[in-house]
Amino acid sequence: MTDQPAPRLAPLPKDQWTDEIREMFAPTVKTFGRVFNIFTTLARHPKLLKRWMVFPNHCLLKSSLPPRERELVILRAGWLCKSEYEWAQHSRIGLDAGLSANEIERVKEGATAVGWSEAEKILLAAVDELLETKTLNDAQWAALSERFGEQQVLDIIFTAGNYATLAMALNACRVEVDDGV
Predict the structure, then answer these.
(1) Where are the beta strands (DSSP E) in 21-146?
(2) Are 177 and 169 in contact (CB under 8 A)?
(3) DSSP 11
(4) Quick one: which of 17, 62, 25 has its CA closest to 162?
(5) 7: number of Cβ within 10 Å
(6) 20 to 30 Å CA-CA from 13: which of 122, 141, 152, 163?
């Protein structure tokens, strides 16, 4: 991934936040101690931000996937979608979720990289297939279903989709990677 040009939409300055926006940002501040550029950029459309935040909060904070597997899905989607922002954010979050720096680097190679467990290979291959074909073939579905429960399979699908959509918005708006990330 390369350096990004200037943002197309600048983050909404704090002095322009409404009470509604401050209220929406409260859980993010509580969880992360700050508000990231993706949120302050989307704050330019408060109605969209309010409705959208419910879904990624599930994917990131309430998923049935263990954090390590969740981060493999997110990192692979971010890499495939060429999202410098997601890659930077979730490389850090991935470390906190138990991935090593070497494993995070291997996500770039996907399921064929040496060192993944069989379940991790299947998980990474599923993300590739979902983003490439927008579906899962029967063999991939069966492989996922053997290793992950129904809710986890749904969380894999929706997490990959959420982060692909998010990467598209981040890339199109040219949201800058946050300072310190």
Answers:
(1) none
(2) no
(3) P
(4) 62
(5) 13
(6) 163
Instruction: Check: CB of residue 11 under 8 Å from CB of residue 41.
Output: yes
Q: Is 56 helix (H, G, I), strand (E, B) or coil?
A: helix
Cα–Cα distance measured from residue 77 to residue 170, given in angstroms and rounded to the nearest whole number: 13
Dig out the tokens for 33 from the structure. Answer: 């101690």
Give the total residue count for the chain.
181
The DSSP 8-state label assigned to residue 58 in this structure reads I
pLDDT digits (tens, 9 = 90+) for 127-172: 999 999 999 999 999 999 999 999 999 999 999 999 999 999 999 9
**Spans of the chain, pLDDT less than 70:** 1-4
CA distance 154 to 160: 10
Residue 27 is predicted with a pLDDT of 85
**CA separation for the pair 115, 106 (Å, rounded):** 9
Please state the separation of Cα 76 from the chain's center in Å: 9
Q: How far apart are CA 20 and CA 170, in angstroms?
A: 23
| Best CA proximity match to 170, nearest among 35, 80, 47, 78 | 78
Please tell me the distance from the alpha carbon of residue 26 to that of residue 39, in angstroms, as a whole number.
Answer: 12
Alpha-carbon distance of 151 to 79, in angstroms, equals: 24
